[in-house]
Design goal:
It contains seven helices and 13 strands. By secondary structure, it is an alpha+beta fold. Strands 3, 5, 6, 8, 11 and 13 form a six-stranded antiparallel β-sheet that branches. It has a five-stranded antiparallel β-sheet with strand order 4-7-12-9-10. A two-stranded antiparallel ribbon has the order 1-2. The longest helix has 27 residues.
């Protein structure tokens, strides 16, 4: 077997022994050369021939062990040397006419093991019929295949999973917020005011009645006997500031007074006649400003009233949209005799952007205290 080992190592020097496929071809060539030597001696089935085959197997296993990974690669990668040897033994036991067939040996005439020095030529690298014994992957190949089959969970995939969970939770939160603000989740027994076109209102600035927000038509006992304070049919009761503009306009059959301030803080004054004050004195009064903004220009108006001897109503603010709405406020009027007329002042745009405000009507109704 010394000659065979030398021949194998000489073949390694002519090629790339690190390439497993190349080593397998060399081993197959060695087996083919051995079989030619055994066939030439005519003793293919004897115990001596089988011993020579086994000896070659053992020598190949020893050589292959030199290509196993170092011990430092971890205990999980250690494998038996004998289990790691490639299966390269050709099946040369088929018979034809009672004779054993073996590859022809044209370049060497072996005369026994002592003088056996086969040449491993490229012509010998033919694919023989594989042995019935199952082939075992070399350790390096086994590890490579195991790594391919093993699912890998990288830090990036974990981060993407966490990010997906956060996005889903955020979407659910936004959806719940929208449903709540849209009024789709109404508590049982809660009145639906959507049909009343309740106006958007801000808290009264006088903070004297923080628990009572401005009401809408139908929410007060008043509402049947309205007293007109202003109508676009008589714009003479309106006084515009120096930088303001006021004009009666009509849209879809409805008349209104469009007021627009030229500078922040400019307010329009609407007269409240003394006769009106006399009718509401000593009663609970509900004032109603019917108004809307220009389309696409939502505005915020502020309202003040000075009723002379009957007091005032404090400053109130309302967010006004394009839809026509009733903006209400209530006061208890003292039972005094008025000494003159009063007034209601309206600033059409607290934001100072010069947005116009359309006043359809100003009126008041009373109920007993």
């Amino acid at each position: 077997m010394e000659a065979i080992e030398k021949a194998i190592r000489a073949a390694f020097e002519r090629g790339n022994p690190e390439d497993r496929a190349y080593r397998v071809k060399v081993y197959r060539s060695a087996f083919a050369a051995l079989e030619r030597a055994i066939a030439s001696s005519g003793d293919t089935q004897s115990e001596a021939a089988e011993a020579r085959r086994k000896a070659l197997k053992i020598r190949i296993v020893e050589i292959e062990a030199e290509f196993l990974p170092a011990e430092g690669e971890g205990p999980s990668r250690k494998m038996s040397v004998h289990a790691s040897a490639p299966s390269v033994e050709p099946d040369l036991r088929g018979e034809t006419g009672g004779e054993v067939r073996a590859p022809a040996l044209d370049d060497a005439e072996p005369t026994g093991e002592a003088g056996f020095a086969p040449r491993l030529e490229a012509d010998d690298y033919r694919d023989p019929v594989l042995s019935p014994e199952p082939a075992v992957l070399l350790p390096k190949e086994a590890r490579r295949d195991a790594r391919k089959r093993r699912p890998r969970r990288t830090g990036r995939s974990a981060f993407m999973s966490l990010l997906l969970v956060i996005v889903v939770l955020a979407a659910v939160g936004v959806g719940l917020w929208w449903v709540g603000n849209a009024g789709l989740l109404m508590i049982a027994g809660e009145p639906d005011t959507a049909g009343d076109n309740a106006p958007k209102t801000l808290q009264q600035e006088n903070f004297q009645s923080q628990g009572t927000a401005p009401a809408t038509i139908g929410s007060s006992a008043a509402g049947e006997n309205w007293i007109t304070i202003f109508s676009p049919a008589d714009p003479t009761t309106v006084t515009a500031p120096a930088t303001g503009k006021a004009a009666v306009m009509e849209e879809e059959g409805s008349k209104f007074l469009r007021i627009q301030s030229g500078s922040p803080g400019s307010a329009f004054t609407f007269d409240v006649g003394q006769g009106v004050l006399e009718r509401i004195a000593g009663k609970h009064a509900v004032f109603d400003i019917v108004a809307h903004s220009e389309e696409g220009k939502e505005t915020q108006m502020s309202v003040n009233c000075d009723l002379g001897a009957l007091g005032d109503c404090g400053r109130k603010r309302y967010q006004v949209g394009h839809e026509r709405n009733d903006y209400l406020f209530e006061i208890d009027v003292p039972g005094k005799k008025p000494t003159g007329a009063g007034r209601i002042t309206i600033d059409p745009d607290l934001g100072g952007k010069g947005n116009p405000l359309d006043i359809v009507e100003i009126r008041v109704s009373t109920t007993a205290k």
